[in-house]
Please model this.
Amino acid sequence: MTHETYTSVWSDLAQVEFSQGFLQAGPYRTRYLHAGDDSKPVLLMLHGITGHAEAYVRNLAAHAEYFSVWAIDFIGHGYSAKPDHPLEIRHYIEQVNAVLDTLGAEKAYLSGESLGGWVTAAFARRQPERVERVVLNTMGGTMANPAVMERLYTLSMEAAKDPSWERVQARLEWLMADPSMVTDDLIRTRQAIFQQPDWIKACEANMALQNLEIRKRNMLSDDDLRAIQADALVLWTTKDPSGPVDEGRRIAGLIPHGRLAVMENCGHWPQYEDADTFNRIHLDFLLDRDQAD
Model:
């Protein structure tokens, strides 16, 4: 890695007016990063499996101009509460509802990556009255590819049992088209999470959706997607390791008010790998200014 490409979570946040803390969201102590004025509409940003709020450090500033942005740690993830049971989509939806209640937000914009996209789509399907617009970013929940599930499970559990630099690095490199994006700072940020004393049990709980039987009962059917009423942006990438662009195109075609955007040369974390492009596409959609450009 060259010095020119090196970044850190802190350098990403250094000029961002933000806060970090914990909400008591129903039964769930929920960690958050927050930016933007509370008078603005709420935008929830939801990370992927074994992820954490730092997935969105490069997006807070751009979105805080227009939204009260909350990037949260899901339960069983990051530094949020670690329930002692397998985590299924309904548990994450309970947390999202509780967060919105705690924030006093009747409705919100939701943007989710991977697992976060799966939760966002399921939330929009079940509680349309609480949703403005949704972004489904390299979302999960429509495919059950045993090879991908096994790879994800193995990389995640190996890093949980032995959170060595190399194993955490391997897990993060799975996310990126360009492995040099996995900086020392990002590895250390995630390593600290994986070194928590309760992490192995938590990781088993949040890996439940990689179990085929559990996954099948949580998956989004074509009819579920057809029933989503909100305007939805399906954002996919040309180098996503979880599935091809064709899957994103299929999803967008099923959602009545769905549209597809494809980002080049990004993997599973486009919001981090190419933040400028992501922020532009994302805000154009959320603010409904697509046609103005």
